[in-house]
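User: Round two. Same drill as before: sequence, then structure, for each protein.

Assistant: Same drill it is. First protein:
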Amino acid sequence: MESDRGTKVVWRITTIVVVAAIGSLGADFEHFTWWSIAWWAIYGMLEELGFGKHVFWFFQTIQLLVIAGVVIMGAMACTVFADAYNKVGAPRFIVGNFLMHYMASLEVYALSTREHIECGEHKAMVQIWAALGVFLIWHHLRDPWAVYGCSLPHSLGITGMLLMTLVIQIASTFLAVPREKAKSGM
């Protein structure tokens, strides 16, 4: 139990340092990634207060939408990545990309308990679709293709994130049900 606490302390310190370092770069809430970093900070605070288990699926959905967006935009050669790479060089680009887009999800998953994940289908569903709502608000306030330098159909952003949310929802129907309940068939 003590090593578990030590691990959590290390992760929390890492979170504070990474969020502060990224924030010092000048948060640009035009990018959805900055919204997810803000949620990472909020999630960390909620976790410390004992409420992280109530927003696990919400947070992970936000993160998975960011990761899906990064993969899709990278594959479609959106200029945001080439611009960042040219500005900071390969080592900083690789480390920064990992810290900004992937680390939060890995940290939260690594520190989660069964109670976080197995919260029940209904609770997971509400959190997952609320996260899509956050994305839709951002999408309404910004022109994603202009922000990221993409020449893709505008409907692709919403359609892609809706499909990703459906995938997360389907996965949650297997993961969010407590194991004891799943085994008994109830």
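Second protein:
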Amino acid sequence: MALLITSALAVGFDYAGETLALRLQTAALDLTTTVPAVTGARVLLADSTHDLLQVLQTALNATPSLPGGTTFAVTLSPLTGLVTIACSGDTFKMVGLASSTIGAVLGWTSAASPAAASFTAQIQPRYLCLLASRESAGWSQKTPIAAAETAGGVSYGTRSGVVRWEDTLAFGFIPSDPAYVASLAVPNRRRNCPVAPRSSFSPTASSRSPPASSPPNSATSNT
């Protein structure tokens, strides 16, 4: 039973931009795709100008001399977390994709060749933590109170008018090895976050949280 991605955390980074060699097999065309630089890029959890999946898709479809009727789609699977580049209207190959920055970020470790209608990355993207579950402990109200005791032993307190609501979220990581994920019969037996250091999850990280199931690692959310 494969795991289903229910939540994700994305870390922002700067992407310098680059050119990619693209071969359309049926049309027998060797083309060059220019991917623009992106400041504050993210994988998946961003708008169309900052999400590298959408940025790459837009760049491929804007490739000079791309024949009419040939289009590209770049997607991330909710089951494996792997990125796929698919071409409609022709077959293609990108021999240098794995050695490019964007290819490495999106999970390619080997060349996208020989020509085919689609290619799927070998590993999950960098800078993106994929979660198999999200469980909420429920919102609870917190109000700061200042207390003191007089010399005579009388205690008193003053309650602030500020109210804060807190919830504790428990996440289960999706393993980064696709073969291991596919072999799982019970979710969350092994957990791994395919993002560099844990310290990367700073207040600047983005999160998306669809519905949930079972726990392990937890974090506190304040609103």
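The two ends are 36 Å apart (CA to CA).

User: Perfect.
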